[in-house]
User: What shape does this take?
Amino acid sequence: MMSPSFRRLAAALAFAVAPPLLAAPFAYVPNEGSGTISVIDTATDQVVGELPGGSKPRGLAVGNDARWLYVSDQPNNRLQLVELETRTLGATVALGESPEGVSISPDGRWVIAALEGKNEIAVLDTNTRALAFSIPVRGKNPEHAVFSPNGRLVFVSAEEGDAVDILDFAGRKQLAQVAVGARPRGIGFLPDSSRAYVATENANEVFVIDTASFAIVARIKAGLRANGIAVHPSGKYVYVSNGGDANVSVIDTASNQVVATVPVGQRPWNMALTPDGKKLYVANGRSGSVTVIDTASRTKLRDIAVGKLPWGVVIR
Assistant: This one.
């Protein structure tokens, strides 16, 4: 009988020979301590490859054509492109000091990166793969910059500013700043873009912001050191990773109440859901693993070993 380690090696070799680009969605996990990106087949929950990711990969985005992976390489102050078909490093784009969170516009045209050292958002044109422009923000030390699903707004968490900066992307300007709890981190939106959910690590709360009025409409008590946010495709549930509690809280968006808590690995950080919403993948920084959660039963399915200090997950 083939051992689990041999099966994993065989899967990785198969990926290296013929990348299964048309198979199930893949989860890409940046390992900031290893300088690699682990590739997980979400159909089998097996690691099927390791990609180069620069010296300290953090934020990730995958192009809509699934050809390019965009990775923030923090100490080198750049965005690293990885070609998924050949699994090789492509161009690098200088961004500015300490890029962190990365996201892609719904139409796939723009990739944005939060620059902690410059207090601005760098914008890459995916057609030219070059820096197009930057948008300054008022908050200090921005960590995450996230497009609303309709592409009109960008919400930016000011890690040391205890606030969220709200940008008009087409107008390339800041519209508002909303004070939230201490050390805001992850951001997620309802599918209709009507509300944003912001985790605040030192306040242990999730702030709910109305995207039309920019008013805080709810504050939800989460676990210790709440940081990552993921929103179910149905819009019915929001998931919050609690770094100090080693678990994930499940919030019912109708009641704004925590309805379940699921144990995961140590120091859970950023997360992503499969497109069908059936599974949630949670990066556990101190455990060097990704926990897979069944969203229907709200139970842990398994832990997948990845590289050192996984920072997040993106799925496409």
